[in-house]
TrEMBL record:
Subcellular location: Cell inner membrane
Main location, first listed in the record: membrane
Protein's membrane topology: Peripheral membrane protein
Gene Ontology biological process terms, A to Z: peptide transport; transmembrane transport
Annotated Gene Ontology cellular component terms: plasma membrane
Keyword annotations of the record: ATP-binding, Nucleotide-binding, Transport
Family: Belongs to the ABC transporter superfamily.
Entry protein name: ABC transporter ATP-binding protein
Amino acid sequence: MTAPLLRLDGVSKHYATRPSLLGRVLPNQPMVRAVQDVSLSIAPGEILGLVGESGSGKSTLGRVALLLEPPTSGTVAFDGANPASDLHAFRRRAQMVFQDPASSLNRSLTIERILDSPLSVHRFGNRAERRVRIAELLELVGLRPEMARRYPHELSGGQRQRVGIARALAIEPAFIVLDEPTSALDVSIQAQVANLLVELQQRLSLTYLFISHDLRLVRWLCDRIAVMYLGRIVEIGPAETLWNAPLHPYTRALLNAVTAEDLRPPEAAGDVPSPIRPPPGCAFHPRCPMAGPRCAQHAPRATTTTDGVTTACHLHDGGVA
Ligand code: SF4
């Protein structure tokens, strides 16, 4: 079995609801449990899709995977080592593409200066060599080199996102977290950017963590899909298997809602509970159409099927709900 490129072991991320003036967390202060005890790994060259409703913890998990925020507990390993021991080297190999290119690109800088920034930080060549690299990057993402002289507001949304992708690729990373990279774009442009991401992944042998609420896109683009609910991974497995035969009631509800505009599962009644006080037992039980007496008391343990799908639900852990 191939050694994972990225591995998360028991990763949690909690935030204080009201940090004190000195940023300290006080005893008994309520905490937002944005990510809870997540373990997963991504193999080199793999695309793992991460789906779930808004507020499920997807983006937080992506930022923690890149150590843009430190985990509250648990460990992040990259290429078998602790990336925190040399963050500068880790940043060379692991990058992020943000959802909204309009806000993630500095409006006061030209595209050339935006793309020059990561190259300068990581001491890539001299000025002339960096100019050549910037032209290469623009061509790589399907933009003309003369775009380097423009400002972000002079570009379309799709072109800005291409610049965001070029910036992430500038220092030749191995791993990229893509946080809803197409959702801020016009529908007509989304497919073009998605095609570009696939082409780049194959051409440059990249590994992606692809965060999205678009299940159709995730199915098309990803090798495996992980489903998040209230900070936890409730199901993870090969994309086609999970799409055709989801086991967890939450995954089933998401797939049934796939034609809806947003990701509110019609079979899952009520609102998502507060991550400050997640329900006891299975956190999905207040909304689950299949919930039984055990579900409110005992957290289900994750079990893996012969098809390689791991799910956390009492209907599949050998007991009864
Ligand atoms: Fe539903 Fe119970 Fe399974 Fe949770 S453990 S998803 S409440 S059946």
